[in-house]
Amino acid sequence: MNKQKAQPLIDYINKYVLLTPEEENILLSFIRFRRYLKGQYIVQQGDVCKHECFVLSGCTKTFYLDEEGQEHIIMFSIEDWWASDMGSFITQTPADFNIQCLEHTELVMFSYDTIEDLYAKIPKLERFFRQIIEKAFVASQKRIVRNFSLTAKDQYLYFKEQYPEIEQRIPQYMVASYLGITKEFLSKIKSQLALE
Amino acid sequence: MNKQKAQPLIDYINKYVLLTPEEENILLSFIRFRRYLKGQYIVQQGDVCKHECFVLSGCTKTFYLDEEGQEHIIMFSIEDWWASDMGSFITQTPADFNIQCLEHTELVMFSYDTIEDLYAKIPKLERFFRQIIEKAFVASQKRIVRNFSLTAKDQYLYFKEQYPEIEQRIPQYMVASYLGITKEFLSKIKSQLALE
DNA sequence: AATTATAATTAAACTAGTTTAATATAATTT
DNA sequence: AAATTATATTAAACTAGTTTAATTATAATT
Known about the structure:
Chain A is α+β, with helices and mostly antiparallel strands. Chain A has nine helices and eight strands.
């Protein structure tokens, strides 16, 4: 893959481990660039997730459809975040989640078929992925805590504060889905906040 | 540390990566055995978590006290599970969680001060920890999904099915806390289930 | 500019789960 | 065995958030 396009990924990795120029080149030979249009799916529930994707530009939502066909958004990914169904990726079993682009989106893809080979050639990346997954796990646990201990209003305020960029880019009903509340109730919360 | 006592940990690690006898010995020199009594704390909210603990026997609860002093249990750990506040451990900042023993508990401890050294001596362990944290992250995400899409009754049934051993070993009000509901409501759910 | 589709607001009726408080049942301690 | 402490049950009043449905605003399309 083209080095210039991959620069945000290389910068991101170098925050965790230092790659030599040689290693950067090996990395480039292992990754693929891909562009998706707004609305397109990167992964569909039921498919096996073959890639871990690093978002260069654009925005995706990762969501789950329950038995009643209700959509539950579990995360948004923008620039410098990851998009994949990790459960499906690591076990190569059907995905629980859909990942769909909310904007035109440019990605770097790591393929399941070559990632072991990549770890063998650049063992440092094993360390890198360990570290980012540790962080993701911690964030996920903290979200469970918030779900338990905050009211819907406080969860919304936390979201606004933590991800102001994301709130600007997506419709409000998706924020509600991410928070696990109805769009009507989020609307009510916002109108109450406006009066304070 | 004594090899015989560490055997469950070695067996557990060998499910992910194969350690040579030499590596097993290095590992043993890096880990510590410790016994806690029922009621003792392994980590307290506000302290920095210095160890990642592998449970050899016994049972712990990891919980969070909110502003009103309410306890929210986020996980239980029994034999062959881990107990630590990973957020605190990886950043060496004050812990959000308490970890307390619900039974007399025997642990193997990995210390923050030597874990980098251990990774350097046995790079395979970086891979091992990456893999187990991937699994923990996936489990955490799935729990968020369940919180969103299942009723309290269905979450309880899921818990019963997934962790029948744990349900036998802990009081019911702790199950309720883990599920994020009140003990009174869990009691109601159980009496409804008894009628079905 | 008019039309259609998408997103957001409002409000009333409803329900899953909470709160409070009293009672019952185990389990421990003396 | 009696007394104390911890755990579990039950029920009534309550509330945070849902459902349904109608209305308005915004954006996209012709």
